[in-house]
Predict the 3D structure of the following.
Amino acid sequence: MSTQSFTADAPCARLDVFLSEECKITRSAAKKRIEEGAVTVNGKAGKASQPVKAGDLVEADIPEPKTLDLTPEDIPVGIVYEDEDIAVIDKPQGLTVHAGNGHLSGTLVNALLFRLKSLSSINGVVRPGIVHRIDKDTSGLLVVAKNDAAHLSLSAQIADKTCCREYLALCEGIFKEDEGTVDTYIGRHPNDRIKMAVLPAGKGRRAVTHYKVVKRYAKGFTLVRFRLETGRTHQIRVHCRYLGHPIAGDPVYGSKKQKFELNGQLLHAFRLTLDHPKTGERMRFEAPLPAHFTRVLDTLEKGGVL
């Protein structure tokens, strides 16, 4: 642990934003250090939302970087776009994004280390380049930062909700409404720590998901497009369960009896829209539905559409 000191040259609207920029860490990491009491402003404990004035002395205890050897591995992944700052990846179903729980191989990070010359270091040695995640059994698009400046820009876009992440999911049952918004709080399930759950206000983190029906199938399934406003763990999967329409194939939040032979939920991150961190250009990427998803839709089409 090292203590870093900064004297503000100019005012800043929020302490977590100031700390993120000065320490080259994500805003969420800065907020966490502040909430842990590791940051002071003029000798007093700081709050993430408090403004920083010119001349303020900000001191922060920042953990030293960990050392860990991750092995590059030749794991097939689709690279939709790449330049010197970012790479957009089409992740297949079944691939974990980064190492954890003692598993240091067979992840998207191992594949990226094999294919890309550089990755940002902001998220540490276990998650180099990883700005946001999608679940192991969710397929589709995510953006990877190849340097720290790009990482900070992309993280800020996600925090400011200017990065748009859209998904397609096949849900059980027939949605009555054509579109809507789910606005709840999500946190750890009180009785099963592996799961997430919708909790009473104030006992979890606010989670907002917008949805729109794409197609209703006569056999009792609905294809739905989702847009994330926030990005909580398992957010779309939990919200679908909350609506009474769990995602087909979901082993955690879905029905015990599955109609199709699947290896996980039919949830695909099909569209990603962002501002390029260096040029500011608005960019949109799309990934077609994978074969395991279209196979099920083809089967449902034969049964008719409502």
Q: What stands out?
A: Residues 291-303 form the longest helix (13 residues). The chain has a mean pLDDT of 90.
